[in-house]
Amino acid sequence: MEHVRKRPSMYIGSTGPKGLHHLIWEVLDNSVDEAMAGFCTRIEVTILRDGGVKVKDNGRGIPIDNHAKTK
Q: Which domains does the chain have, with CATH numbers?
């Protein structure tokens, strides 16, 4: 994750509103994928006072281990 924090525009294309929209879309899309696969029954999206967004679901989560093909 540190490499993404150091150069966010390299990964999301923009550090402005379009980039934030893209990040939210990707996270929400992951939640919807979990729901469609039967692993999630609740998705909650909260717009925070500071302009941030929180996406929460009861799915399996995003794996943090290295993928077998990319090791």
A: 2-70 (3.30.565.10)
